[in-house]
Amino acid sequence: MTAERIEQRFADRAAAGRRALIPYITAGDPTPATTVPLMHELVAAGADLLEVGIPFSDPMADGPVIQRAHERAQAGGTGLGRVLEMVAEFRRRDTETPVVLMGYLNPVEAMGYAAFAEAAAAAGVDGVLTVDLPPEEAEDEALPAFHAAGLAPIFLVSPTTTPARMETVCRQGRGFIYYVAIKGVTGGAGPELGGLGERVASVRAATALPVGVGFGIKDAETAAAVGQLADAVVVGSALVARMEALADDPAAIPAAVAGEIAAMRSALDGLADRAAPDTHQEAST
C-alpha cells in the first residue's frame, strides 16, 4: 500500500467533505511502551493520518516542547530501528491509517537511503518527511530510494518559500504538501489566519496535492479556523505538551491526548456542511 494509503485517505475525506486531522507524536515519548497504544487511541478519536517523530539529538526545526520529547525518547532507548518496530506493531491491528515518519536526515543517512526505505515500507510506513533534506538535494539518492519502496516524500513549504522552491517541492512531493503556518519552530505563536488563505492558495496554484497546515495549531478553535482553508490540519506541540504534563503517569496519556484529538475532530466535522476546500481554485481569506 504505502503511499497509496495516503492518497486514498485524502480522497475519501475530500469525497465526504471532511478535513483530515493529523496528530504528531514523538516515538518513545515518554516511554517506548506508550507509543503504540497512543497511536491506536488517536485513530479511535478521529485521527486520519499519524505523524510519528524519529527521536534525534538536534531537532532544529522544533521548539522546546518537542525538543524535550526527543530527549525523553532517546533517554528511553528509542532510535530509528525501534521506531520502525513500533510502526510494524501498530500495523498488526491497523492496516488502513497512513503513517508518516517525520525526522531529520542523519539517522536515515546512517542506515542508508535504500536500506531505510525498504525497512520503512516493510514496517508499514507510508510517507517520510525529513525536515533538513532540501528538495534539490533529494534527487540523487533519497527520492529514487523512496519511490522504489513506494514511500511518499513529503516536503515543507513556508511563508518564505520562493516560487522556484515551491515549484520544486510540488513537483517532487507526493501524498500532501505540508505548509508551515508560522515563521519559526514548532510550538511558537499561533498561525496568522488573516493571510493564511492567500498563502494556501499559492500552494494550491502549484500542485494538485492536498495541502496540510501545521505549526501553531493549539486547540479545537484554531484547528477549525485552519480547516476552513486547508485540506488537513497538523497538530503536534499541543499534544506533546499534554504528554509532558503526564510523563510521570504514562498510562494516562493515551486517553488524555485522544481527548484533545476528539475535540479537534468534532470542531473540524462542524465544517463538513460547508464546501470542501477546492484544491484547484484559490481560497479566500
Short summary:
The protein contains 13 helices and nine strands. By secondary structure, the chain is α/β, with parallel strands linked by helices. Strands 5-4-3-2-1-9-8-7-6 form a nine-stranded parallel beta sheet.
User: How many whole angstroms does the radius of gyration measure?
Assistant: 17 Å
Share of β-strand residues:
5-15%
Tally of separate helices? 13
Classification by helices and strands:
alpha/beta
Number of strands: 9
Low-pLDDT runs = 184-188, 279-285
Distance between the termini: 36 Å
Largest beta sheet: strand ordering: 5-4-3-2-1-9-8-7-6
Write down the overall mean pLDDT.
89
Helix content: 40-55%
Q: Tell me the major beta sheet.
A: 9 strands, parallel
Quaternary organisation:
single chain
